IgE-binding protein
Amino acid sequence: MVFIKAAALLSLLSAVSAAPAAEVEARGTIPNSAFGFLALRSASPIHFSSLNANGGKIWLGKPTSTYCPVAKNLCPKGKDTSFWINNQYWTASMNAIVPGGQQLYIDPTGALSYTQAHSAFIPSGSITKGFQVKKEANDLYYLSHCEGGFLACPPNKSGTGPWKVFIDVKGKLKDKDVPSKSKNDCLGFNVAGNPVKDAVWQYA
Ligand SMILES: *[C@@H]1O[C@H](CO)[C@@H](O)[C@H](O)[C@H]1NC(C)=O
């Protein structure tokens, strides 16, 4: 199932103590690291769902989709979705080693998106800056975007996933742009996580 298992969640939430010391610095400064992230919205079906890359978009309740074109023993060990946050430039990319990388951006509809491998194409009107990670007192790293909060939008009104992740840019996400055609169906959530070590080759 696509929801992170309880044991995996506990290990993710406590992984900060297991992260290499050199990468984790004093509170208030952010390690140069990739992060795995979970959605936080208590008493909702998305609580503790991991943010997963699939088909160029970020989802809750959909499995991570990766591809590695080389021999298995040469592929990086990562299996789950992780993000590289450049906290100086407020940009972000996928934690993928494919040449050219895979940049994270908000497409013109508000959907959190990433570039395809071997392509730098980003639709005009997209937002590439504004991502930031802050370490909070609970030792978790919170991801935010300066233009608006995270929304998880369901495929329809049935209350089931998978939920497509949007940023509500300036509070102006449009009904027509969400899968169920009603922004009211979407759930706001916070995003928290911890540094992770292993990359993937590319997200597919
Ligand atoms: C709602 O979406 C889910 C997931 O795509 C699908 O399985 C289900 O059949 C849909 N329900 C309705 C009422 O359209």
